Amino acid sequence: AIRMTQSPSSFSASTGDRVTITCRASQGISNYLAWYQQKPGEAPNLLISAASTLQSGVPSRFSGGGSGTDFTLTIGCLQSEDFATYYCQQYYSYPFTFGPGTKVDIK
Amino acid sequence: EVQVLESGGGLVQPGGSLRLSCAASGFTFNSYAMSWVRQAPGKGLEWVSGIGGNDDSTYYADSVKGRFSVSRDNSKNTLYLQMYNLRAEDTAVYYCAKGDGTNNYYYTMDVWGQGTTVTVSS
Asked: Considering only alpha carbons, which residue of chain B is nearest residue A44?
């Protein structure tokens, strides 16, 4: 199975900050990488597919990049509603696998 | 509105069985692959199983292979997860998720239910 790692595992930030989360795959996955946001008590929400394609309705302050094994999720100007846990997920091969998550909380 | 709604969770003893259901609405169910994803208390997301939209190809995480079985009834717009020989480590919220439709085999999950809770305990 492809192993996904994320860094950092958690961090504190302030509203208005620019934040970047990194995701790494244990082998090349082309651009078969998705990012999800999950808030406490809620189901995950798909933000980005194909490493950089923003889903309809997702604010443009979110952006994704990367290919192969290294990927990033950037939030350009953190808003209060963005404090959540973010997961990357590869869908290049079965079994699909998620990263362990990055929790973004308020400084 | 595109929706999926899980049901069937509950308390089960170790070694027991349970069947989860996921009722889909608002989209052409047989055209989309579907997945089950779970989340143990306080932990991250774990993909469990997936099934193709129109060819019934099935896939499983190593942790459930041989114990869980995914199926679908396209006439009822319903996805199932039959779970056998349940273990304490299967305790989790189980989410049903719709594939994005770009590919029958390799897809992101663009619509999620609210989840159903499975607790395995004596």
From this structure: B112
Residue type (1 letter), B91: T
pLDDT by residue (tens digit) across B43-64?
999 999 999 988 779 999 999 9
Q: Which of A25, A19, A15, A4 is nearest to A103 (CA)?
A: A19
Record: contact A45-B45, CB cut-off 8 A: no
pLDDT tens-digit readout, B20-39: 999 999 999 999 999 999 99
Residue A84's nearest CA partner among A32, A44, A24 is A44
Give me the phi and psi of A79, to 5 degrees please: -110, 165
